[in-house]
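User: Sequence recovery, please. Input:
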């Protein structure tokens, strides 16, 4: 999976599951400030990625994640395992 494919999958989750307006889901969009996500949403996001990320992901990895691009960059290595 490429980073762009991962981005599109995560964007789909943001729009369909978290009801974020599609035009707000940009690489530099801040998850908390621009998309109104909270810590529970971060855990939910990890759960929702299980369909396309084959390994267990510790939600703690999201402590340093601030933007959509951070999500992609953080999760991408897990797609390569």
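Assistant: Recovered sequence (81 residues):
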């Amino acid at each position: 999976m490429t980073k762009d494919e991962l981005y599109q999958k995560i964007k789909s989750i943001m729009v369909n599951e978290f009801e974020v307006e599609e035009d707000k889901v940009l690489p530099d969009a801040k998850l908390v400030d621009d998309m109104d996500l909270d810590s529970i949403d971060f855990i939910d996001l990890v759960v929702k990625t299980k369909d396309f990320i084959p390994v267990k992901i510790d939600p703690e990895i999201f402590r340093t994640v601030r933007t959509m691009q951070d999500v992609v960059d953080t999760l991408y290595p897990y797609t390569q395992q």
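The chain has three helices and no strands.
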